[in-house]
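Translate sequence into structure tokens.
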Amino acid sequence: MTEEQIRAILDQIAAGRLDVPSAMTRLRHLPFDDIGFAKLDLHRSLRRGVPEVVLGEHKSAEQIAAIGARVVKAGQNLIVTRISAEKARFVKRKLRAFDYRPEAQLGSIVKKVAKPRGHGPVMVISAGTSDIAVAEEAALCAELFGNRVTRLYDVGVAGLHRLRAGLDDFTQASVLIVVAGMEGALPSVVAGLLDKPVIAVPTSVGYGAAFGGVAALLGMLNACASGVTVVNIDNGFGAALAATLMNRIGLPRA
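Result follows.
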């Protein structure tokens, strides 16, 4: 959005030719920022309450740095998922504030800390230690979106006594994100124990017949417990966004 566009809207409001709700509607649908190889949706925060998140996978380090520079210049938070350590080092040379979390392959620059909003904490549960990378993508994104986040890791169905030990903690959560590979059974177990939304994330963890996460995905789609929401394989970011929207249902916009 250019300064002239903003000024035109403000002038119309000042002159009484445009009311504030109509102005907000226009702002939600103003053009994207075209930088040639990418069209940045800098108004997504206004429309959806969370910023556009950049997928770093298959983008070059130069492209990520250029996108990041424009996002930061616009005064918005930058979040990049699926970015390798090598690409992150390049981006950090260009954008010194870039904070890289290797355990989640996620980088960010926070221009404005999101105020905590929601009915309660979002809890991220992982079945195994091998699922933590995806779980951390979900947890970090949920935090950057303005949720209070708690974690409970390595509590899979091979040892359910570990899950029972954390029962008091996850009954306090407003929304639960459950991350599992192999046969993907954990979300069904969790959803059968409480009356909270459960978002299941299949991971590509597992031996040959796990088929890169397809077995877990199908297991979660066929969960015995009713009402389990399933996102795509390894999609921690998607689970975090879904949890954020669920956690804000009925609350006024920030």
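Note: The first helix runs from residue 3 to 14.
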